[in-house]
Structures are given as structure tokens and as C-alpha cells.
Design goal:
This protein has about 300 residues and is α+β, with helices and mostly antiparallel strands. It contains eleven helices and eight strands. A hairpin with a 6-residue loop joins β4 and β5. The structure holds zinc ion (ZN).
Amino acid sequence: MGLRTILYGYRKEHLSFYIIPEEADIVRQIFREYISGRTMKSIADELTAKKIVYYKDKCTWTKNAVCRILENKHYTGDYEYPAIISRKDYETANAMKSGKGGKRESDTSEIALLKRKMFCSECGHRYTRRKNYSGTRERWTCPNQCKLSSFLDDNTLYEKLIKLLNRIIDDPNLLHYNDTTGELYEPTLELIRQDREIDRMTEQKNPKFLPIKSVIYDAASNRFDCCRIDPSKAVTDRLIEYLNTFEKLGTLDFSLIERIVKTIIAHTDGKLTIKFMNDKTVDEEDKNASSNDSSEDCNENSRQSIING
Ligand SMILES: [Zn+2]
């Protein structure tokens, strides 16, 4: 990085310092992003990637360069330098840096709970929550930058969750699986191979008992692993029993989420799906939801046509 004698963001003319607007924007951006929780390294990397000029033709940003900007009090304005950022932002950023007081504003247990349960439907990454520049509005996003068509702040998220949970409280039977035929036995490729091997061995003219026995035992043990006892029925019954003790929610009940919600899946269209402890998923109700009934109508019609035919 070239040696820069004048503080980034300023130019000097007749012994006075003046703001360079484009550079001042970068300074503000650095503070904003750092306060929102980004690391100095990732801020530096992005500036480098975007080829933001630091000095003359140099556009390599290091963590140290970002650090020096965050620590430089001149940016809040003084007798020499006009202000580029507010004193408050300077103090917030530096409190976060030194770990005093407001280091990364630790999560409440409620927020921590949601962070633990919420995932991106696109890439499966856990969702993160960031604060905006002024710290007044939160934003839930996928850290892999999967697109989200609507803004998800705490309020929107809570409202969506209340609505979804109220649907379940209203009608706990939504937690039942429609088909109980779920695959309880799913052989692995290894097991299929072993079965073929057993067939092949037993079809030989002079089958060798011991090797066959060993493969059969192996396969039996594998088969046992491929069978799962269906736990969902018992879990579903318990969930429904528990939900029956609830009235419709007015505010979000985090202990309810803790107990019955396995994961919250956020889709790119801004809709949520809740996966409950019995692995049953329930989506946000949309206009099309009621048209699901039409499948029954279809059945009705086909039944009718069978009768008529
Ligand atoms: Zn994602």
C-alpha cells in the first residue's frame, strides 16, 4: 500500500483540509459495515475486490488500513479536519473494537434462539441478523448473500412466526402426516450390493458356507440399520397435546418455538416454512392454500365420473 501523507478522505489546499466526497463515502461505508458486524478483513477484501483506489493507483486494502480509518478521530471533525462521520458512530465502532461496552451487542436469548433455528432455503446456511447503519433496524439475511425479495426485520419475522404458529394452534391436526406410508425401510446401495452378492453366492454350484454366512450376517445387520422406527406418530401426538393448551398468540412465544420448532426455513420470496419437531413442515398461508382443497374436488369429480361411467 503506497504511503499516503494526507488522511484518506481529504485533500489539502493552502494549509486547509477539504473532503473528497468519493473517499468520504468509503469512510462512511467502512464505519457502517463495521458497526453492522462485518470484520475489518472482509471490509478490506471487498474494497480491494471493487478496486476502490486507496492512494494514487493503489487499490489494495488491508485490514490495517481499515483499522487505521476506524481509529482515526479526525473523521469526527476538529479544528483541522471537517467531519465525515458522527462522533456516535466513531465511538460505537471503537467500543466494538476495543471490546469495551458494546462489543458486537450480544444477542438476547430470543434472538440467539431464532439464529439457531433459522436457515436459508437456497444454500442451507444459518441466517444472520445485522443492524443497519444507525442501529435502528435489523435485517435477517443469508450470509452467503442468497437473494431475499423482501426485507426481513425483527418485526416482520415475528409477525410471520406468530401467524404460522397461530395456524398450528388453531388447527394442530396440520401436524399430522397425510400419508403414513412413509418409507420405513430404505436400503442403502451397500445393502443392495450385498443382497446381490448373497444371491450370486448361493446360486453357485458348490456354495461355500462360511463366506456366505458372513455376508448374510453383515447384510442382516445393515438391513436393521436401514429400518427406522417411525417416531413421528408419538412425537406428533405429544406436540398436538401440548398445542391444545395454547390460546392464539398475541406476541411471539419463544419457549413455544424452543419446544416445537425444529427449524425455520427462509425462502427467497420472503416466505417462511416451519419444520416442527416431528419433521412435518408448514408453510405460510397464501392465497393458493385454499385451492389445495380442489384436489379433493378433483377426486370428487373423478369418483363421480366413475359412478356415471
Ligand atoms: Zn443462502
